[in-house]
């Protein structure tokens, strides 16, 4: 098996972590909060879109262009542990965690890049 096939196989078998993430601009303190069922993939997507100059959040893209990639930190804030309980609802758990993190660090207005109404990325 070649190394490319092995890398693909490992990626597909890697468990996906769900939870809350943050992209922080260290130059001005603004943050983007988000939640995802695939934190690693979601953070990579944000980094990739910013580096291409085509991120959906215009203000964050402008700041990326102005301050450079070294001014941004991509962080996992909280992971939702996987549960075998059939009653466990990941969507509900992520929604509750969003509310907790929005209260801790409101990501709106001059403090952040989010728009009022939620942070869901999924």
Question: What would your notes on this structure say?
Answer:
The chain is an alpha+beta fold. The chain has one domain: GIY-YIG endonuclease. 41% of the residues lie in helices and 19% in strands. The chain has four helices and three strands, in the order H-E-E-H-H-E-H. A hairpin with a 5-residue loop joins strand 1 and strand 2. The chain is flat and about 40 Å long.
Strand order of the largest sheet: 2-1-3
Report the sheet with the most strands, covering strand number, pairing sense and barrel closure: 3 strands, antiparallel
Radius of gyration: 16 Å
- How many strands? 3
- Give the CA-CA distance, first to last residue: 33 Å
**Architecture per CATH nomenclature, i.e. the level-2 architecture:** 3-Layer(aba) Sandwich
Low-confidence sequence ranges: none
CATH third-tier fold name? GIY-YIG endonuclease
Structural class: alpha+beta
Q: Which strand-content bin applies to the residues? A: 15-25%
The global form is: flat
Order of helices and strands: HEEHHEH
Helix content: 40-55%
- Which CATH class? Alpha Beta
Integer average pLDDT: 90
What is the assigned CATH homologous superfamily? GIY-YIG endonuclease
- Tally of structural domains: 1
Helix count equals 4
Q: What is shown here, in short?
A:
41% of the residues lie in helices and 19% in strands.
Task: List the SSEs and their pairings.
Elements: H1 3-13, E1 18-25, E2 31-36, H2 39-52, H3 58-67, E3 72-80, H4 90-104
Antiparallel strand pairs: 1-2, 1-3
Top keywords for this entry?
122 residues; alpha+beta; GIY-YIG endonuclease; 4 helices
């Amino acid at each position: 098996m070649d190394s490319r096939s092995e890398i693909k196989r490992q990626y597909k078998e890697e468990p996906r972590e769900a939870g809350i993430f943050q992209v922080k601009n260290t130059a001005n303190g603004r943050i983007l909060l988000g939640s995802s069922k695939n934190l690693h993939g979601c953070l990579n997507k944000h980094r990739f879109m910013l580096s291409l100059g085509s991120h959906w959040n215009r203000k964050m893209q402008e700041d990326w262009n102005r301050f450079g990639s070294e001014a941004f930190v991509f962080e996992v804030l909280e992971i939702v542990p996987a549960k075998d309980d059939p009653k466990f609802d990941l969507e509900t758990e992520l929604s509750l965690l969003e509310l907790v993190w929005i209260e801790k660090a409101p990501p709106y207005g001059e403090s952040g890049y989010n728009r009022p109404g939620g942070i869901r990325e999924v």
